[in-house]
Amino acid sequence: MTPTAQPRRLTSTIIIALAFSVPAWAKSPLASGSGGAVATISAPASQAALAILNKGGNAVDAAVAAAAALGVTDPFSCGVGGGGFMVIYLARENRVITLDHRETAPAAFQSSAFAPGGKAMDYDTAIASGMAVGVPGTVRGWHDALERYGTMSFKQVLAPAIKVAQDGFRINDNFVALVKENEKKFAMFPATAAQYLKDGKPLPAGTLLRNPDLAKTYRLLAQGGVKAFYSGKLARAIVDTVNQPPVAAGATARAGRMALADLANYEARWRQPVRSSYRGYELVGMPLPSSGGVAIAQALNILEGFDLASMPRAKAEHLYLEAARLAFADRNAYLADPEFVEAPVQGLLSKEYAARRRELIDPTRARHHAEAGDPYPYQQDPSVPLRPAASGKARLLSESAHTTHLAVSDQDGNIVAYTFTIESWGGSGITVPGYGFILNNEMTDFDFSGPHPNVPEAGKRPRSSMSPTIAFRNGKPAFTIGSPGGSTIITTVLQTIVNHIDFGMPMPQALDAPRISERNGLATSIEPGFAGSAQARALEGFGQRWDASVEEIGAANAIVFNPDGTVTAVSEGKRHGVGSALVQKRGH
Ligand code: GLU
């Protein structure tokens, strides 16, 4: 269904009726109830979260349980070999805090890592290498979140994932397709090939896949805590694997430069969220080093000056694309790790600056390329004189749905929106032998050559797009949303918010609608089936144009907090297989 065909402002009662029309046993992308809720892309992960909620765990406990299970069932998107961003709402204190556990460049990492001799290297070569691996932050993030805001131990929350890894799970078509896509990369690394390939080809769909090595790793964490990852044998294995990637005969992979001290010194960061307002909602999102919260807030600030709800849908969508383009021009030019770069975040978030950017939009005609603006006069302290030099050219890659996002809430009203990743599908492709997890290639999220705020530097975190978001209305949670998909994460979250708030689509339809992603590139990314649609043709009337290569964009998960006190968990109905939404039964 195209968004234009959506009924307007269905009540939450209808959403609930829809949810209950799905048989209880089916893997369902939609569920409503009155206790805790979870939405992930994986049934075992959602079940892990529900089991923890039912045992009395809170949203933080359940989020870590789901994440650990996702590390087993979606090992090409996420896991302990990577990092992520968690947004936590603490209901009793009515407070939001965010946890940055992004991978970090090792101390010996060099700015020329991906541009030897000054020339940016081939992206695929950069990915499948020890050099691409950042110091993993996931385990530190899980630990810090549990220690400060959880109620359970690693032992308790990892138990469901250990069982999935030990007993196995049936791989689906989506899993097989991802292995197929990565055959060449996985074949380079024997420990990865042994787990995911048979005679160099993917295992067939329906195969029961076990990962005893990962079960062992999780047991080590359950017994030894965070230290078991960042020191000792496992840390040594990570460092050895990065510095001397164990490759198949005839294959070569560039070595990294990670030291035991990089792991021992790794820290997650508690950060204040990015806050913005949009048509009576307060949006709370991820700050730098993710560009997600700032870019989404800026695009919405630009859009707020247009009455999208009252205009023809195509015109409103044209404005959505133009606002995204302008926000991306600034994001691409200014945003990077805040510990290394003084980004003009206040200016970018100011409503006055958004008004100036809005003036650049032609409501009848696509711009095709936007230059970065000048947010510095809108900084609270406009005297900050340093403006970074940036080429403004964005590296736009095929980013479909790498990464994973999960949403959890508990019966006390706490919420966790959590996006975590190993960067590309299958990360660097390098499994730590004997430990069952794939190492990230997050360092390739740096701009390979400068000048640019996001160039590689030792100890720096590459700019991300991950956008776990919580929206409030009248001081109460309204919904939470996030998605995978590289830089398309920003447009997926933005578009879904516009679909929901401006076009009045209930969240399931807002998620389901065809995604169109404008990131100030040459053309807008679209999904299969969109080209030639009435919606596409209407937008072409504004001069919008589409990228020829089409693929699914994102795999979002959301929870809606209905005005009557019920909750509705919403996952994808068709993208990336079908997602899994679950809610607690009354009485838990
Ligand atoms: N590395 C990406 C980011 O941090 C996430 C991976 C992806 O979805 O492509 O934005």
How is this structure best described in words?
This protein is an alpha+beta fold. It folds into 2 domains: 27-86 and 95-262 and 398-457 and 561-581, no CATH class; 276-378, Gamma-glutamyltranspeptidase, large (L) subunit, C-terminal domain (Serum Albumin, Chain A, Domain 1). Helices cover 34% and strands 15% of the residues. It contains 19 helices and 20 strands. The chain has helices at residues 12-20, 43-54, 59-73, 123-127, 138-149, 154-167, 173-187, 190-196, 212-224, 227-230, 232-243, 260-264, 292-303, 313-334, 345-349, 351-358, 488-502, 507-512, 534-540, and strands spanning 30-33, 37-40, 83-90, 95-101, 169-170, 197-198, 201-202, 208-209, 269-271, 274-278, 281-285, 404-409, 415-421, 469-473, 476-482, 516-517, 525-526, 557-561, 567-570, 580-583. Strands 1-19-18-15-14-11-10 form a 7-stranded antiparallel sheet. A hairpin with a 5-residue loop joins strand 18 (557-561) and strand 19 (567-570). It is globular and about 60 Å long. The two termini are 37 Å apart. The protein binds glutamic acid. Residues 399, 402-403, 421, 423, 442, 445, 464-466, 484-486 line the site of glutamic acid.
What would the keywords be for this entry?
Serum Albumin, Chain A, Domain 1; binds glutamic acid; 588 residues; disordered N terminus; seven-stranded antiparallel beta sheet; alpha+beta; Glutathione hydrolase proenzyme; 20 strands
